[in-house]
Recover the amino acids of this structure.
């Protein structure tokens, strides 16, 4: 008789909805107290405050070490501590690099923007406006883990470096687009080091992180230079900074000792070593200025073409396409997602409307992204034509990660002997 | 050592500082006000507390990804029980497979792959089922059984004492039912209860 109960249940399930039917009225006990379902609280606000405080202190220390103490050793110590706290202890979330997406999603109208996120996003940027990329120097755990493995940095040819430095523009643009439409958080999903910080996560990401670290022993900080979307924003902010890393504490004597010190190619040489005749330079500038609108238009057009593909970043769009394909017989079978959708009894029209709205957003966003990329490439070309009148070796405000390696190479102000060697200091 | 000329207060330096301060304030104001002018759900609550991930048990189809997609192993998602909804069935379809060999608590009779459900006799013919969260891996097998043949009182939740609150929950990205969403940290659970039974999920 007992065996027949499942059979009864089976009959019941055919007559009732699959979810939430009260098939067996809960008993009314006389002397049994029902246990309560526990609801453990999330991490407390206090922990977040501590995190913000630590971020602020670390930024202040980084600025101090780079600009006042001018000590590479102090920066390395800070990087190790930051890696331990922000990386392994805190688990990597929330971080300023990823916060870009929360801001973008709020911008798209799809999420609330907690104060915590606003502060975490802004702190390093505001610091960069005043003193440069102190965050990259020894606070960011992603930067720190890469910086600590640099053993024998090779110089990357400037044409290659310059081209690869366009990647963060595309990555930032894509990440903002995906987050603003509420489709995905690409920066977090593909953060190569998150898996290492948590000692968990998808195997592919852990392998990617390890490979990047292996490459990072000879190609310094590849993620920072050629991918990091937040690093790009920091480079914009640091162009306004009052201070740059001052390689020579007083007057640079052009001894060229620092030239190879920088592992990320951020030291600008006097005049960039390209004396171009004035009329030639003007001609090139005029040509690129004419080319600029063409590039922007071409980018916008390309972006528009890419929109339907990019829209597939969104699960709703994917689901709508799958349902279309199933309806038209183009799909071989159903998917878990389409089955799940049908089980909700929500009208397909509803979903199609959502998907259409999302496609609209992607069309606009992708066109803008394309135009932005055109502008980026054009701007790069224009900047290549600019005549520089630099007379000393100095760190590029935007590209310098403030790691402090170059500081110890400069003979100026390292004491009497070195000063004498350098000659004309002060 | 005389100070380098760049460090001396000049009119240009002062102007630069004003630009910087204005830039910083402007940036701060712009980001802080984003939620307001974007007019989304953020409109009223830009300064709201943090948010955390939670799964809506009414949308979940027990696909099993909660056990495998979480960055934590075992997953931060566990089965929980809405006791007031439970029928206290002797033949719990969340506890026993549809055709148990025998009515015992022997391992081969249990649906749960880790034996995380404790069955105890209350009074004839009622039994109580309690989840040992240390053992539960969030596979959803019991939830599926309970939803299909029982009252649906077993369901899954992200447990916030375990969850790292990833900025992008890996399960949310993988869930075929779109069951995950961010909820206010002040109300971090989407619990089932008896009054809600057979009703659609809120929102
Ligand atoms: S460039 Fe990006 S990853 Fe590198 S240190 Fe800066 S913020 Fe971190
Ligand atoms: S501090 Fe010096 S070595 Fe380091 S990134 Fe900047 S210029 Fe290069
Ligand atoms: S991934 Fe989604 S559908 Fe699958 S078990 Fe988890 S909540 Fe349920
Ligand atoms: S069957 Fe799966 S979800 Fe249910 S208690 Fe066991 S491990 Fe947890
Ligand atoms: S937020 Fe992270 S830890 Fe929490 S359930 Fe999702 S993947 Fe797991």
């Amino acid at each position: 008789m007992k065996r027949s109960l499942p059979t009864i249940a089976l009959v019941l399930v055919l007559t009732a909805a699959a979810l939430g039917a009260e098939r067996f009225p809960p008993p009314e006990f006389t002397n049994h107290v029902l246990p309560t379902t526990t609801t453990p609280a999330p991490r407390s606000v206090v922990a977040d405050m501590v995190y913000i405080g630590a971020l602020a202190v670390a930024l202040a220390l980084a600025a101090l070490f780079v600009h006042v103490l001018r000590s590479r050793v102090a920066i390395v110590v800070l990087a190790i501590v930051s890696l331990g706290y922000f990386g392994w202890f805190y688990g990597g979330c929330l971080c300023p690099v990823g916060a870009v997406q929360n801001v973008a999603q709020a911008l798209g109208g799809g999420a609330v923007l907690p104060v915590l996120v606003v502060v975490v996003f802004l702190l390093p940027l505001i610091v960069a406006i005043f003193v440069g990329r102190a965050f990259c120097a020894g606070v960011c755990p992603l930067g720190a883990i890469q910086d600590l493995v640099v053993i024998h940095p090779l110089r990357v040819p400037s044409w290659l470096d310059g081209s690869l430095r366009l990647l963060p523009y595309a990555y930032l643009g894509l990440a903002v687009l995906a987050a603003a439409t509420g489709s995905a958080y690409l920066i977090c999903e593909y953060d190569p080091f998150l898996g290492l910080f948590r000692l968990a996560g998808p195997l592919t990401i852990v392998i990617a992180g390890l490979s990047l670290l292996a490459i990072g022993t000879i190609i310094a900080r590849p993620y920072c230079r050629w991918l990091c979307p937040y690093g790009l924003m920091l480079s914009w902010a640091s162009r306004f900074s009052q201070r740059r890393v001052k390689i020579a504490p007083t007057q640079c004597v052009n001894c060229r000792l620092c030239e190879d010190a920088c592992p990320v190619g951020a030291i600008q040489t006097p005049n960039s070593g390209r004396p171009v005749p004035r009329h030639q330079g003007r001609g090139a500038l005029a040509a690129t200025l004419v080319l600029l609108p063409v590039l922007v238009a071409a980018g916008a057009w390309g972006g528009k073409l890419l929109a339907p593909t990019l829209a597939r970043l969104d699960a709703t769009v994917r689901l709508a396409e799958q349902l279309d394909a199933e309806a038209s017989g183009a799909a071989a079978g159903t998917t878990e997602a389409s089955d799940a959708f049908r089980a909700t009894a929500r009208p397909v029209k509803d979903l199609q409307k959502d998907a259409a709205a999302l496609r609209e957003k992607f069309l606009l966003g992708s066109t803008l992204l394309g135009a932005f990329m055109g502008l980026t490439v054009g701007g790069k070309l224009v900047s290549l034509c600019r005549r520089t009148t630099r007379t000393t070796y100095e760190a590029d405000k935007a590209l310098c990660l403030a790691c402090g390696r170059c500081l110890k190479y400069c003979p100026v102000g390292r004491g009497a002997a070195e000063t004498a060697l350098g000659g004309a200091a002060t | 050592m005389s100070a380098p000329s760049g460090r001396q207060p000049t009119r240009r330096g002062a102007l630069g500082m004003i630009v910087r301060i204005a830039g910083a304030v402007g940036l701060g104001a712009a980001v802080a006000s984003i939620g307001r002018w974007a007019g989304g759900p953020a409109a009223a609550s830009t300064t709201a507390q943090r948010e955390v991930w939670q799964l809506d048990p009414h949308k979940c189809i027990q696909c099993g990804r909660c056990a495998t997609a979480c960055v934590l192993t075992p997953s931060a998602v566990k089965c929980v029980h809405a006791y007031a909804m439970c029928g206290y069935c002797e033949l719990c379809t969340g506890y026993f497979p549809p055709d148990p060999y025998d009515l015992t608590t022997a391992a081969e009779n249990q649906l749960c792959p880790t034996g995380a459900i404790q069955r105890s006799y209350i009074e004839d013919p009622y039994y109580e089922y309690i989840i040992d969260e240390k053992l539960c891996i969030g596979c959803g097998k019991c939830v599926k059984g309970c939803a299909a043949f029982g009252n649906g009182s077993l369901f899954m939740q992200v447990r916030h004492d375990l969850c790292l609150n990833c900025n992008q929950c890996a399960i949310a990205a993988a869930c075929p039912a779109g069951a995950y969403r961010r909820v206010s940290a002040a109300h971090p659970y989407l619990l089932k209860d008896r009054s809600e039974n057979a009703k659609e999920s809120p929102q």
